[in-house]
Design goal:
Chain lengths: 154, 730, 212
C-alpha cells in the first residue's frame, strides 16, 4: 500500500492503494468515476482509455504508481455539458450502439484531433485501431471524427 | 433525459400496491397516477388509479399529478436502440415527446409479459400492443379534460403532454388530468394514429441514450455501486464438466483486501459447474486473489476434447442419413438421374459472443429468501426465472434491476452470471459485485454451435435445378444447454431457414444429422442462420456457376420465377448496387440473401484483389425488408453492426479446443475486426408500411459472409467453404 | 580506430531468473546491476587481426539472434511492429511515427509500461519502448545476412553509429536487452545476450566482413 496523489479531471485525490493496481480500477472503484470501462485487461480493446498527461493510455495496464502525481482526464472531464466537438459529432451522427466502448473511442480521438486537426482516413486508422467496437460503429466513428474536426476548425 | 435505472428502495417487489410501486420506481411523489397496462393475460387493457391497491398491475404509463410522465420499457437496451424505439411506440400515441418523459426499465414483473430482447422481436412483437396502450391513455386524458370543461370530446385534442380545447385554446397538462382520467373506463379499442401523422415513429429520431453514452453517464451493470459493496472474482475450470477436488488458498488469503472464499456452482442451462469465488474489498484484490488460488480439478476425461477431432467426426458423419426435415418429390431419383451433379461440404465454426462488457452482476440478499440483483441482461424475466429455479426461491422474492448492456448478441439471454452473483451474495451480509474477466467471457461459453452442411444439387443441362439437398451436421443448442436426451425436437432450430427460402427448388430433401458434444452451445446473433445461410447461399452460387449464369440472374430468372419478397429484395439490390455496371480489373461482386424467423435481408459485396490472394472489400450494399420501420437510422446502425460482426466471424478467429480447453482467451488471440478493416455499408430499407413488420437486429448478419465469399470467387476463382478464412491469403 | 575502453560493463535493466519458463521481474530499482562483462580489446590485440572466415561466421551466429522474433519484431520491413513468435503484425495496427514512438492515440508507452506486466499476452515493458525512428528504420525483416550486415555498417542507415557505438548498442541498450526478458510465454533468442554480443563484436573485430 502506498499513498498516491492523482489529479483527475482537475480534482485532486489522495488515495491509499497498492501501487501495482491498474489505474482503471482506482478510477472506477476508488475515485468512483464509472465512465472509463473494463473490456479486456490487456490493452487490446481500448475501452479503458484515459488521458495521462495528455496521452491516451490504456488504464487497465497502467499501474497506479506510474500515475502518481500526474494529471488524468477521463471521459467525464473531457468537457462540461457534453460540449466537446467529438461529443457533439458523436451525438449528431448517433454513433453509439451499446456505447460501452465509446468513452475510450472518444478519448483516443481527442488525442488524434489535438495532434492533427485535419485527419485523413488513414490518420484515423492509425489513431483508432487500438479501440475495438463489437457493435460495429466504426464507419460512424470515422465520419464523426471528420465532423468533429469540422466543428473544431470552425 | 436521464437514466432512471437504479432504484433506491431495496425491498423486493411482492404483490403490488401503488404506494409501494411509486417508491420502488423512484417516482417523485405520492400524487395520484394514471397507470395503464395490460392485465396479466395480455388481452385486457386496464388502469390503476384508485384501484391500484387491488388491481395487480404494473403500468406502462405513469402520469403523476406533479406532471412527471414515465414510460416503462420492457425491452433491455444492449445497443439495438430499444431505449428509444420501444417507449417511442407508446409516446407516439400518447402524444408526448421523448424529451418530456422518463424511461424506466421493467424488472421481470409477470404483468409485463415477455421482457426479453432477442430474436429481433422487440419492435415487431410489441408494435400494436404498445401503441394501443399509448392511444388508450390519450383518449382517457382527452375525455377527462372534456368532462372538466363540459365541452364535446371532439373539440379537444392532445399534443406534447397537454390537452387543448380547440375553440377556446384552453389547456390542461396531463398531470392536471391524471387523477380524473384514472377513474374513467379504459377504451379497449382506441383509435390508433394514421402513420402519416407520426411524429416519432418512422423518423430518424435521436436516441435519448446517446448523450449519456458519450459522456460516461450511462450506467451499465458493471457500474452499479451500493453502500458496503464488496467484489468477487470467480475461478472456473476451463475444462467443462470438471469437478473441483481441492484448492489451496494460502497465497490467496495473503493478498491484502481478500476476505473470503465461497465455493459454489455456476448454473448454465441444465449444467452445474464447480466454481470458487474470491471476495475482496476491491475488484483488484479479489482478482489477484483468484490468480493466486491453486485449484485441483478432476477433468473426468473431458480434457481429451479437441476441435480438429470433433470436426473430423462431423465430416465423417456427413454421409449419414439424417432426420428428414423437409421432403418434396423424389430427391434421390432426381439427383441420380440429373445430367449435372454438384456436391460440397461447408464447415462453420464455434464462436464466442464477446460483448464488450464482460459478464457481471451485483446482488444483495435480504434475509434468507429475498434477493435483489442489478444486471446487464437481455431479459429481466429470464434473470428472475433462472435465479428462482437455481436458488429455489419464489420468483416474487426476486427483484431485478436492468441496466444498459455493453452488448448482448445472444450471450445475455443466458443469465448464468446473474445466478452466480446471487449464489455468492447468499453467503454474504453485504452486496457483492461479481465481474468476469475477458478470459472467462471468451472461454466459458455458451458458444455458437458449429454446423457443417453437406450440399447436393442436380441440374439439368440448361442449369435448371432438378434436385436439391441441404443436410446440416451439428450438435444442437438445446441438447447441450438443457442436457436433453431426446434430440428429436432439435432438428428444426438447427436447420433454420434452409427449407423456407423463396427459391423454387424441386425435389428438395433436407436433413439433420445430430452430433453429441459436451460443450454448452447457445443462440448467437441470428442463431443457426448465422452458419447455415453461408452454406446455402454459397452453394446457390456454385449452382449458378455450373449453369454458366450470372449468380444474381440465376437467382432471379431460374430460382425465383414467381413474385416474392425475396425476388423484390434481390431486384432492389440489383438496382442499388448497379449490378450490371462493369467492375475494374481484379474486382468481383457477390450477392446473397437469407430469410429466416427474424426477417429478410440481402447484400451485394464488392471486393478487389491485386494478386488473387489478398482481398480488399471495396463496397457493401445491403437491403433489408421490414414492412414497417420505427427508426430508420437505428435500422442502418443495426445493419452496419451486423455486417461488422459477420466480417469478424468470417475472417477472424473461431473458438477451438485443445485438451478440453478453449484455446482462445482474449482479444489478442480472439481478434475482432478493427476500424481500418470495416468498409462503408450502404443500407436500403424496404418499408411499404402496413401491418407487416419484420425484425431488424439479426437479418443483417447471415447473408453478409456468403455475399463476401461469392464476391471473392468472382474476383479470384477461389471458393471458400470453411470459415474463418484469412483475407490476406485466400 | 577508436580506443576502446578495456572493459565494458554490461548493464541490463532487469535480471532474469528462468523459473518454469517465465520471466521473473524485479522492480526497476534493481536496474544498473552489472551481471557480466565482455572483454574488449585495442587495435593491437591479436583479437583484432582481420579474419574473413571467423568474421562471417560470427555474423551468421549473430544473425540468428537478429532475425529471431525478439529482435526482428521491432525491426519490421513495414511501419508497424510485429508481435509474438509468429511475428504477426501488431494487432492494434500501431505505426512507427517520426520518432519511432507511435502515433496519436497509439504511442508505444500508452500500453507498454516501464516494465513487463505478468501474464501471457500482456504488453512487454521498457521505459523507452519504441521502434527505430523513421530516419533510420533499420529493417531486419526480409534481409539476407549479407544485406543486413551491410545495412548495419552503413552509417546512413544505422543512425550514424560507428563500430564502437554499434557494439555499445548491442551490449548496453536496455531495449536490446529486453529481447531476453520477453513477456510470459514467448521464446528467447537462440543465443544468450552475452554470446550474441560476443559474436557481434567478433564480427566487427575480425574485419566486419559481409557474409556471402
Amino acid at each position: 500500500m502506498a499513498s498516491i496523489s492523482l489529479t483527475v479531471n482537475k480534482k485532486k485525490y489522495q488515495i491509499d492503494a497498492d501501487p501495482e493496481m491498474p489505474l482503471l480500477w482506482a478510477i472506477r472503484d476508488l475515485i468512483g468515476l464509472k465512465g472509463t470501462k473494463f473490456g479486456c485487461g490487456m490493452a487490446q480493446c481500448g475501452a479503458c482509455t484515459v488521458h495521462l498527461d495528455g496521452e491516451a493510455v490504456r488504464s487497465c495496464v497502467t499501474l497506479l504508481g506510474r500515475a502518481d502525481g500526474q494529471e488524468i482526464v477521463t471521459i467525464e472531464g473531457i468537457s462540461d455539458n457534453t460540449s466537446h466537438p467529438l461529443q457533439k459529432a458523436w451525438i449528431e451522427l448517433q454513433v453509439p450502439q451499446c456505447g460501452y466502448c465509446q468513452s475510450g473511442q472518444i478519448m483516443s480521438a481527442a488525442v488524434l484531433l489535438r495532434e492533427n486537426p485535419h485527419p485523413t482516413d488513414q490518420d484515423i486508422d492509425e489513431a483508432m485501431m487500438g479501440n475495438l467496437c463489437r457493435c460495429g460503429t466504426y464507419t460512424r466513428i470515422r465520419k464523426a471524427i471528420h465532423r468533429a474536426a469540422e466543428i473544431m476548425n470552425g | 433525459m436521464s437514466q432512471n435505472l437504479i432504484v433506491k428502495d431495496s425491498a423486493p417487489r411482492s404483490g403490488l400496491d401503488r404506494r409501494h410501486f411509486l417508491r420502488l420506481s423512484g417516482l417523485s411523489g405520492l400524487g395520484l397516477v394514471l397507470g395503464l397496462g395490460w392485465k396479466s393475460d395480455g388481452h385486457e387493457l386496464i388502469a390503476s388509479g384508485a384501484d391500484a391497491v387491488t388491481v395487480k398491475l404494473n403500468p406502462y404509463i405513469i402520469i403523476e399529478s406533479s406532471g412527471t410522465i414515465s414510460i416503462m420499457n420492457p425491452m433491455p437496451d444492449m445497443g439495438q436502440g430499444t431505449f428509444q424505439s420501444v417507449p417511442a411506440m407508446i409516446a407516439e400515441e400518447l402524444e408526448v415527446s421523448l424529451e418530456q418523459i422518463r424511461i424506466l426499465q421493467t424488472g421481470g414483473e409477470k404483468e409485463f409479459g415477455r421482457q426479453t430482447a432477442g430474436g429481433s422481436n422487440s419492435i415487431r412483437g410489441q408494435y400494436q400492443k404498445l401503441r394501443t396502450v399509448g392511444a388508450a391513455g390519450k383518449e382517457m386524458l382527452i375525455l377527462a379534460a372534456s368532462q372538466r370543461w363540459k365541452v364535446p370530446v371532439t373539440d379537444c385534442y392532445a399534443s406534447e403532454g397537454n390537452v387543448y380545447h380547440k375553440p377556446s385554446g384552453k389547456s390542461f397538462t396531463y398531470g392536471d388530468l391524471a387523477e380524473a382520467a384514472a377513474q374513467l373506463p379504459v377504451p379497449q379499442n382506441p383509435q390508433l394514429k394514421d402513420p402519416k401523422d407520426f411524429k416519432i415513429l418512422g423518423k430518424n429520431y435521436p436516441r435519448p441514450d446517446v448523450p449519456l453514452k458519450v459522456s460516461g453517464k450511462a450506467v451499465y451493470g458493471i457500474d452499479v455501486e451500493l453502500p458496503g459493496m464488496v467484489y468477487a472474482s470467480v475461478a472456473h475450470c476451463p475444462v467443462f464438466n470438471s469437478k473441483l477436488i481441492s484448492y489451496d488458498d494460502s497465497e490467496t488469503m495473503r493478498i491484502k483486501g481478500v476476505t473470503k472464499l465461497i465455493r459454489f456452482q455456476r448454473a448454465l442451462g441444465a449444467h452445474k459447474y464447480d466454481a470458487i469465488a474470491v471476495i475482496g474489498d476491491t475488484y483488484w484484490a479479489a482478482y489477484q486473489g483468484k490468480l493466486a488460488l491453486k485449484t485441483n480439478w478432476d477433468y473426468e476425461g473431458n480434457d481429451s476434447f479437441d476441435t480438429e477431432n470433433y470436426e473430423q467426426t462431423l465430416r465423417d458423419m456427413s454421409g449419414n442419413e439424417g432426420q428428414v426435415v423437409h421432403s418434396d418429390g423424389d430427391f434421390e431419383g432426381s439427383f441420380q438421374s440429373a445430367p449435372v451433379q454438384i456436391t460440397a461440404l461447408y464447415e462453420l465454426p464455434m464462436l464466442s459472443h464477446s460483448p464488450m462488457e464482460p459478464q457481471n452482476c451485483t446482488a444483495q440478499w435480504h434475509g434468507k429468501d429475498r434477493v435483489e440483483v442489478w444486471v446487464s441482461s437481455q431479459g429481466a424475466d429470464r434473470v428472475k426465472s433462472e435465479i428462482a429455479k437455481n436458488l429455489d426461491i419464489p420468483s416474487d422474492n426476486i427483484k431485478v434491476n436492468i441496466l444498459f448492456s455493453g452488448g448482448g448478441f445472444g450471450r445475455r439471454l443466458y443469465n448464468d452470471y446473474a445466478v452466480e452473483a446471487a449464489s455468492i451474495a447468499r453467503e454474504m451480509e453485504t452486496p457483492v459485485k461479481m465481474i468476469w474477466t475477458r478470459e472467462e467471457d471468451t472461454q466459458l461459453g455458451p458458444f455458437r454451435p458449429p454446423t457443417f452442411s453437406a450440399m447436393k444439387a442436380g441440374l439439368a443441362a440448361d442449369g435448371k435445378p432438378l434436385a436439391f439437398q441441404h443436410k446440416v451436421i451439428s450438435p444442437s443448442m438445446g441438447s447441450t444447454l438443457e442436457d436433453k436426451k431426446d434430440t428429436s425436437g432439435e432438428s428444426s432450430s438447427m436447420t433454420e431457414g434452409i427449407s423456407t427460402q423463396a427459391y423454387e427448388l424441386p425435389n428438395m430433401k433436407n436433413e439433420y444429422v445430430f452430433s453429441q458434444i459436451h460443450i454448452p452451445l447457445a443462440a448467437w446473433r441470428s442463431v443457426t442462420s448465422s452458419t447455415v445461410a453461408f452454406a446455402h447461399e454459397c452453394f446457390i452460387d456454385e449452382m449458378a456457376e455450373k449453369a454458366g449464369m450470372d449468380p444474381l440472374e440465376y437467382r432471379l430468372q431460374v430460382l425465383l420465377t414467381k413474385p416474392s419478397d425475396t425476388k423484390r429484395l434481390l431486384l432492389k439490390l440489383k438496382e442499388v448496387s448497379h449490378w450490371e455496371k462493369a467492375l475494374p480489373e481484379g474486382w468481383g461482386r457477390g450477392v446473397a440473401q437469407y430469410e429466416f424467423f427474424a426477417g429478410l435481408g440481402g447484400y451485394v459485396v464488392e471486393v478487389s484483389s491485386k494478386d488473387k490472394t489478398s482481398i480488399h472489400i471495396e463496397k457493401v450494399y445491403m437491403v433489408i425488408d421490414l414492412g414497417t420501420v420505427v427508426n430508420p437510422d437505428t435500422v442502418a446502425l443495426q445493419v452496419e453492426g451486423a455486417a461488422t460482426m459477420a466480417l469478424t466471424a468470417a475472417t477472424k478467429s473461431a473458438i477451438t479446443f485443445r485438451n478440453g480447453q478453449t484455446r482462445q482467451t482474449n482479444f489478442h488471440n480472439y481478434p475482432l475486426v478493427r476500424i481500418n478493416e470495416m468498409p462503408e455499408v450502404e443500407v436500403h430499407i424496404i418499408a411499404e408500411g402496413g401491418p407487416k413488420i419484420r425484425g431488424v437486429g439479426e437479418p443483417g448478419l447471415p447473408p453478409f459472409a456468403p455475399a463476401l465469399a461469392n464476391a471473392i470467387f468472382a474476383a479470384t476463382g477461389k471458393r471458400i467453404r470453411k470459415l474463418p478464412f484469412n483475407m490476406n491469403k485466400v | 580506430m577508436m580506443n576502446f575502453k578495456k572493459w565494458v560493463g554490461i548493464i541490463v535493466s532487469m535480471t532474469v531468473l528462468i523459473a518454469g519458463g517465465s520471466a521473473f521481474i524485479l522492480p526497476l530499482k534493481e536496474k544498473h546491476k552489472i551481471l557480466y562483462t565482455v572483454k574488449l580489446s585495442g587495435n593491437e590485440h591479436p583479437d583484432k587481426v582481420p579474419d574473413s572466415i571467423i568474421s562471417k561466421k560470427s555474423f551468421l551466429e549473430a544473425y540468428r539472434v537478429l532475425m529471431s522474433p525478439r529482435c526482428m519484431n521491432c525491426h519490421p520491413s513495414g511501419d508497424a511492429p510485429l508481435q509474438g513468435d509468429d511475428s504477426h503484425v501488431h494487432t492494434q495496427g500501431v505505426v512507427r511515427g517520426k520518432d519511432g514512438k507511435g502515433m496519436y492515440a497509439l504511442k508505444c508507452s500508452n500500453c507498454h509500461q516501464p516494465k513487463n506486466i505478468p501474464g501471457v499476452g500482456m504488453p512487454p515493458g521498457n521505459p523507452k519502448w519504441q521502434l527505430p525512428p523513421a530516419s533510420s528504420r533499420m529493417v531486419f525483416q526480409g534481409r539476407s545476412p549479407r544485406e543486413l550486415a551491410a545495412q548495419i555498417l552503413n552509417t546512413k542507415e544505422n543512425g550514424g553509429r560507428n563500430k564502437a557505438q554499434l557494439v555499445a548498442h548491442v551490449v548496453n541498450d536496455t531495449l536490446v536487452a529486453a529481447g531476453w526478458h520477453p513477456e510470459q510465454g514467448l521464446t528467447l533468442p537462440p543465443l544468450t545476450h552475452k554470446e550474441f554480443a560476443r559474436q557481434f563484436k567478433q564480427w566487427l573485430d575480425k574485419g566486419a566482413y559481409l557474409p556471402d
